[in-house]
Amino acid sequence: VVGTALGGGIAIAFAAREPGRVRRLVASSPATGGGNASKEMLLTRAAGVEKEGMRPFADQSMARSYPEAYRTDPAAFAEYRNRWICNDPTSFAAHNRMLAEMDEGPNFARIASPTLILSGVDDPLRTPAAVKEIADAIPGADYRELQTGHFLPVYSPDLWAETVLPFLKD
Questions:
Q1: The Cα angle at residue 145 between residues 130 and 148, in degrees rounded to 5
Q2: Going edge to edge, which strands form the sheet with 2-4?
Q3: For residue 34, what pLDDT is reported?
Q4: pTM score of the predicted model
Q5: What's 11-33 look like in SS3?
């Protein structure tokens, strides 16, 4: 089971609840709960996108989740930004509210599969220190910091492949 960002948090939640169904787990920049610091931001953003749509929030989100250093392919960045803007505001708001209330921390110790937790050194959303705390709480997890940002497979696909695929093949 493999996931990035919120998908990483969901992958972790699945592995904790269904340990017999997961042979290997990989999570990069996993979002495993809003925490008090980000809860208000997530709820405010949810209300904002429902009221104003996605476009007014795009540039702020792109600045945090897709840093300038990783915008080396202007066409790829434009496509990513356009996909982000095309999110359904109601669905996006629901996902923000869910993340604000999510807390997978108590479930980390239940993960039984070999686990690889990845962090991007340039990730302001899920900092290496925060991601390392998650890895340290999962029994036997392998933690690695990579020269990338929040969405590892999006703007560092080769790095993702050379890191994740060998782990999955073991």
A1: 100
A2: 2-4, 25-28, 115-120, 142-146
A3: 59
A4: 0.92
A5: HHHHHHHCHHHCCCEEEECCCCE
